[in-house]
Amino acid sequence: MIEITEKALRVFFSKAAPSCWGRALRLKNCRFPLVSMILALLWLTLPIASAGCTSFGGSGPLVDVMKKVPLDSTSFDYWCIEKLAEDEDLWGIYLKFRDESLEASQLKDMEVRLSSVKHAAKASGFDGSVGVFVGDFATKIIGRRLEDEGYQKTTYQATEIWTPQDGQGYESVALRQGTILTGDVENLKACIDTIVDEQEYSLYEDPDIRLVADKLPEGVIVTINKAGSDESYADLISYGKSYGKKDEGRLKLTAIYIFQDSYAAGEARDEIEGYLETRKFTDIKVEREGSFIRAKALIYITDFAQTLAF
Question: What is the 3-state secondary structure (H, E, C) of the chain?
Answer without folding.
Answer: CCCCCHHHHHHHHHHHCHHHHHHHHCCCCCCCHHHHHHHHHHHHHHHHHCCCCCCCCCCCHHHHHHCCCECCCCEEEEECHHHHHHCHHHHHHHHHHHCCCHHHHHHHHCCCCHHHEEEEEEEECCCCEEEEEEECCCHHHHHHHHHHCCCEEEEECCEEEEECCCCCCCCEEEEECCEEEEECHHHHHHHHHHHHCCCCCEHHHCHHHHHHHHHCCCCCEEEEEECCCCCCCCCEEEEEEEEEECCCCEEEEEEEEEECCHHHHHHHHHHHHHHHHHCCCEEEEEEEECCEEEEEEEEEHHHHHHCCCC
